[in-house]
Amino acid sequence: MQTIYPFILIIHLICAIIFLGYLFFDIFIFPNIKKTFGSEIAKKAASAIGTRGTKIMPLCVLLLLITGGMMVSQYIGKDSGYFSSNLQKLLMLKIVFAFSIFAMIIISLTYKFILKKPSPIGKIIHPIALLLGFFIVVLAKMMFYV
Questions:
Q1: How far apart are CA 48 and CA 41, in angstroms?
Q2: Under DSSP, is residue 83 helix (H, G, I), strand (E, B) or coil?
Q3: What radius of gyration do the chain's Cα atoms show?
Q4: Which of 2, 35, 77, 112 has the fewest CB atoms within 10 Å, i.e. the most exposed one?
């Protein structure tokens, strides 16, 4: 695992940048398109971006979970325990936040593709996921210094 860890970390970081960048764009940048270009162009843009995002983001999130799970095995479990150090406590908090995002994505995709209904968390999923993602990034930096 030590030899592939840097590659897994790079994949994880790239997926995190893509995921959080998409959320940031969707929350802060995209709403201004309607104001600037009108609702017709905004609807077309939303449709195009949403279609592409629905294809890319689940794969990105899946890679985040897989690579994160691979990396977490270096710090938690076996002989090292689960809550023995501050690093492990912060890492477990990151895991809770990550699984919260994953659960919201599963709910949203289930409603969209299986139930063919609007998701009950459709309007709030992106702001909550961005906020949790922000905290995950901050915790990732704090883990090695606290």
A1: 11
A2: coil
A3: 17
A4: 2
Cα 78 from Cα 19, distance rounded (Å): 31
| DSSP letter assigned to residue 34 | H
Q: Domain limits at 117? A: 5-142
119 contacts: CB under 8 Å, gap ≥ 6: 107, 108, 111, 112, 125
Give the whole-angstrom CA distance, residue 4 versus residue 2. Answer: 6
Print pLDDT tens along the chain (146 aa).
889 999 999 999 999 999 999 999 999 988 888 888 888 998 898 888 888 888 898 899 999 999 999 999 888 887 778 899 999 999 999 999 999 999 999 998 899 889 999 999 988 999 999 999 999 999 999 998 98
Residue 133 and residue 58: Cα distance in Å, rounded? 15
Distance CA(124)–CA(138), nearest Å, equals 22
Token duo for residue 111:
């409603």
Q: How far is CA 47 from CA 21, 38, 135, in A?
A: 18, 14, 29
Kind and range of the H or E element at 120?
none
